[in-house]
Amino acid sequence: MKLPRFLNTLTGRFLMLTVIFVMAAEIMIFVPSVARFREDFLLSRLERAQIASLALLANDSLDMDLEDELLANAGVYNVVLRRNEIRQLVLSSPIPEQIHATYDLRDASALELIRDAMVTLFDPEERVIRVIGDPVKQAGLLIEVTLPTAPLRIAMIDYGLRILLLSAVISFLTAGLLFLAVRALLVRPIKRVVHAMTSYAQAPEDTRRIIEPSAKVAELREAEAALKAMETELTASLRQKERLAQLGGAVAKVSHDLRNILTTAQLFTDRLEMSEDPAVTRSAPKLVNSIQRAVNLCETTLAFGKAEEPAPTLTGVRLAELVAEVIEGERLAIGDFDLSFAEDIPATMVVRADREQMHRVLSNLVRNARQAIMATGECGEISVAGREDEGEWVLSVTDTGPGLPPKAREYLFQPFQGGTRKGGFGLGLAISAELVRGHGGRLLLKRSDETGTAFELHLPKGFSISVPGQAGMSVSTEAAE
User: Fold this and answer.
1) CB 245 within 8 A of CB 237
2) What is the pLDDT of residues 130-174, one digit of tens each?
3) Class of domain 315-475
4) Residue 395, Cα to own-chain centre: how many angstroms?
5) Fewest Cβ atoms nearer than 10 Å: which of 98, 194, 224, 404?
6) H or E stretch including 132?
7) Interatomic CA distance for residues 210 and 300, integer angstroms
8) What is the pTM of this model?
9) 42-46, 206-210, 278-282: lowest mean pLDDT where?
């Protein structure tokens, strides 16, 4: 059942809960109140009966009509008065039926009174009961009357309805006052905060839309102050990102033009290397290396400066073939340097990945390892291994180089925060990590110390893939739980 819209608001629910709680409290008061009313009703009947009996004691010759009138005014059938250890039937009239129950009000506890009141209230049958109590002003040892329950029950119902009506009026009046108070003290300030948040979301760069704390309630004022601090920080961050985006666009343009200029300069350096001048011969390699580094920086800056990498086109890639291709390219770069490569990839291992992007990732990892080992001038080894389980494919690239510099480990995968080698810019690992995340995977540094460095690439499995060039061949995989 769908609640009305009003009851789904804070004020509506507060109003409803207030009525419920006040009514519950009134009901808790109602039960003992009805019990008290019943006791007072019976005590009044005892008092009237005692007065009627005193009239008879004062005049022994009352006629039957007067006696009936006294009993009718007292609301009882008969009266028994015990005085001086003598039990005397003072007034009497015919009882229409047998006595149903006897109630002694002299030593009755609160629980007994409540129990007896509920029994009387919910018993629709007309009964005759006996009631025993103490005479007023010690006019005897006890007084005992018999009376019908119908007038008592009618009086109790009337009293209960009046109590419930009064409780309802008090409940709704209290709820209404609380409703107005909550609306003024809580709901309006909350709506103001919501309005301020909505207004700020429309133009977060506009500092005029930042909320100014004004609530009088301490908790709401603290919330407004926290919101103001958050909006101020967010606005500053947005401005900084906007400036960085503009700067990035300018850097990309400069890098593009600078790369073209350096490419032309690189052509001229090739001629310088053929010069027979000893000074030129000594300086040319350094110039070539410097220009090559500048070209690499421009290319990596342009690659990283793209708004985003394209979404990977996932196909079945034979990992052994891809690793062999990457390693073959690196072998051309080492020349006569004593560096060996080891491959441990199952021939049948097929991964779900974008071949071009995965080639870039592996090239970055293997190239970083090669450059780190060659920078030491000592022999070394680079090994690439692959394995798989029910949930993922794992590819590891391990080298025997000197390990990553401390700054590179501290700012790993963050561009321009420190490269993995001297003169590096850290863009290769940042781009690789981004490409792997695009595959839903992770690029992790497992180890880096004086014995070498090990990276692990984790790619999740998910659904069936097909291997290009193999008609009807597919590999079915299931995601790890």
Assistant:
1) no
2) 999 888 766 667 888 999 999 999 999 999 888 888 877 887 787
3) alpha beta
4) 37
5) 98
6) strand 128-133
7) 39
8) 0.42
9) 278-282
